[in-house]
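To assess whether the prediction recovers the assembly geometry, we first specified each molecular entity separately, as shown.
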Amino acid sequence: MVDQMNPAALEAPPTPRQMRKARAQLKFLDGTASQSQLIRRRYKSNPMAMFGLYLLCLIYFTAIFAGFLAPHSASSTSADHAYQPPQAVHFTLEDGFFIHPTESSTDIETLQRVFVEDPDVKIPLTFFATGDEYQLLGFIPADVHFFGTVDPDQRLYLLGADRAGADLLSLILYGGQISLSLGLIGVAVSLVLGIVIGGISGYFGGLTDTIIQRVIEFIMSIPTLPLWLGLAAAIPPRWGITETYFAITMILSLLGWTGMARVIRGRVLQSRGEDYILAAKLDGASHGRIILRHMMPSFVSHIIASMSLAVPAMILAETSLSFLGLGLRAPAISWGVLLQDSQNLQVVANAPWLLMPALAVVLTVIAFNFVGDGLRDAADPYGK
Amino acid sequence: MIRFIGARILYVIPTLFAISLISYFIIQLPPGDFLTSQIASLEQQGQTLDPAYVDALRQRYGIGEPFWVQYGKWMGGILFEGDLGQSFEYGRPVTALIAERLPLTLILGVTTLIFTWVIALTAGVYSAVKQRSFADYAISTVGFIALAIPNFLAALLLAYAGFTLFGASIGGLFSPEYANAPWSWGKVIDLMNHLWIPVLVIGLAGTAGIIRVTRANLLDELPKPYVVTARAKGLPEGKIIRKYPLRIALNPFISTAGWHLPSLFDGEVIVAQVLALGTTGPLLLGALKSQDMYLAGGIILIIAVLTVIGTLMSDILLAVVDPRVRFGKA
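The predicted structure of the complete assembly is given in tokenized form:
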């Protein structure tokens, strides 16, 4: 007899695709898996998020090993190669990889520099070339580069050169060290501020909450950029790179914690009425312990998600400040500092490769956004 | 309603006070006082200032006196005489300098706001109604990219494209022949021809954000029973959307309008700098770089006050639209 109570039995048998889907679905319904396991599984099933994660790992890897990956050191310049366009790498079986050297001259009529390739001469390239000295990870002296010219005195410009004739690829790699770390440190500082202030606001409620919320609304209602600019302009020009770096980070995070504080406050407010919080209170746990030990774990995934969305905002802010000339200043190298030259339209029209650092910014921001969106979806237990 | 507006306006007063404090704090930040450094730089160039004039300035700005006295003198000048102080770089009153440029900033800001709303609302509603269609995916993708591109890059790319395609600079808000001409219809049309580029650039990120919010809100409302009911009674689809779910989905839209104003000014500073617009942004930047602090503080103050007024207006608008807000229940 046909099982009339079960309509599924009447339908066609599931296709392999449907079965695969059902099996994949089962992973998320696994009753024995822990919360973090479930989040990890959901995250991994999101191709965009995984792509963002791989891209992000790659970007940070290049920044950490900038010295090894960059063909030149950041300070090595060559006046002969100012505004040198990107060089094409050629490959033949007998010579391997090579580039043609360029001869620069000034055009009499347009007064612009022209670079002419000399197709007869070949500058051989090699992997693990010996070149400028650098400190790997900041303390291991080394002079081997991932790739470069065989002759250490020759120069290689895969992405072109800037005004001083420094290799733009090397500059972008070194600039990532500052731009990327500044985003992380800035978000870490605003996270601490956000947890403390947002936690207090949500936990105690009442008048404290009202006052803190008014202050946050106030900070959010003033245009941030003019304020950042005003504060950044007050950094004394004689300060060194490290001091300026920390001052800029502080300025960015002092105004950037508000969003984080609102998220945390909302979450704390939600879990305040739960029974387990009351139980912890009756056990005599201190306020700090209740917030950090009992409340935090329930929304730590949300904090991580909103953090990964806050980092790109921080990186963009630093880039904008430095771009406008009020953030980090040369000799510090960040993506924003590198983009300062491209403020002049004439320069950009003649040397469009100077916009390359912006590509690094955009890639990083997109990667962080993918990761952040993926984390947020994965951490939501009610999501599909 | 009147009570709500009254309470809201009362709340503006401490906000304005705090803003003026912060603006003055920024004026104070650079080490040393600007008058001394100004005199020093003038003397370096071989000029001397009349000591009586210097003394008058010293008296006027309360230099050497405590923070509160200086702040009081600054604030008193603004409130009672409408005097924001003197720009040291331009040698002119700050109010005159700002008055020259503020109208353009306002035109730019208001146009951008209208542009953002019109585009974002249409695109957001369309992509929600036609969910999972090609247009929906296209709108979402464009929005995602727009959010990731910093607006100075967008400005640079547009300017670069204009430069290479048309061979002309697309910066500025006026053609050279209109730049110093008095206002006329020709000048207005010329302004419109130049205005769309900065409007597009500044509005880009904001538009993408609002599209996302509108789409998500409308998608939450569309499957609700009251929409089904409206459909069941035979209302045309367009009227259903306009009459019911859209009105609810609009709420966050209006309430976030206030939050968009600060980002408009943020965008304006950068984009105006790149495109060489004659708005307050580049003036502020120049003032900060040359430590012309009364000018910088004045601009920050004006921009912040405008933002507060904008937020106030969006709050009142929200109360008009939504009775729950009016009665303090939402």
